[in-house]
């Protein structure tokens, strides 16, 4: 079975959204899964998207952030990032991925990361 996820920051491959309803429908497979971003130094970030347009991330050093997500054309963007970070908004291209798929991307600071879509919320 093919599972689709749309991912931010560390990853996202192109798909044009027809509007808010299409974006929400396209995100539905991501809601129950985890995107894990792995850094070369061994650090990681777990990312979770929710149907109410909220986003939560948990870092390997114990930090947590929350934000709001929305689709803007071929990008997914985070706004209202809390606690406040160096950037108030971050957009990245969208990625269509299957559970178990890995892809590379850049984080908000431009560092290369390896992302994996993992089944469930871990």
Quick structural summary:
With 122 residues, this protein is mostly beta strands. The chain has 1 helix and 8 strands.
Which descriptors apply to this entry?
single chain, 122 residues, mainly beta, 8-stranded antiparallel sheet, 1 helix, 8 strands, disordered N terminus
What is the topology?
Layout: H1 20-27, E1 34-38, E2 44-49, E3 54-59, E4 64-72, E5 75-82, E6 90-93, E7 102-106, E8 112-118
Antiparallel strand pairs: 1-2, 1-8, 2-3, 3-4, 4-5, 5-6, 7-8
* Helix proportion: under 10%
Instruction: Please write the string of helix (H) and strand (E) elements.
Output: HEEEEEEEE
Strands across the major sheet, in which order? 6-5-4-3-2-1-8-7
Strand content: 35-45%
What's the total count of β strands?
Answer: 8
Biggest sheet record: 8 strands, antiparallel
Number of helices: 1
Q: Compute the gyration radius: what is it?
A: 13 Å
User: End-to-end distance, in Å?
Assistant: 20 Å
Mean pLDDT: 80
Q: Sum up the overall morphology in one term.
A: globular
Overview of this protein structure:
- There is one protein chain.
- The protein has 122 residues and is mainly β.
- The protein has one helix and eight strands.
- An eight-stranded antiparallel sheet has the order 6-5-4-3-2-1-8-7.
- A hairpin with a 5-residue loop joins strand 1 and strand 2 (44-49).
- The chain is globular and about 30 Å long.
- Mean pLDDT is 80; it is low at 1-19.
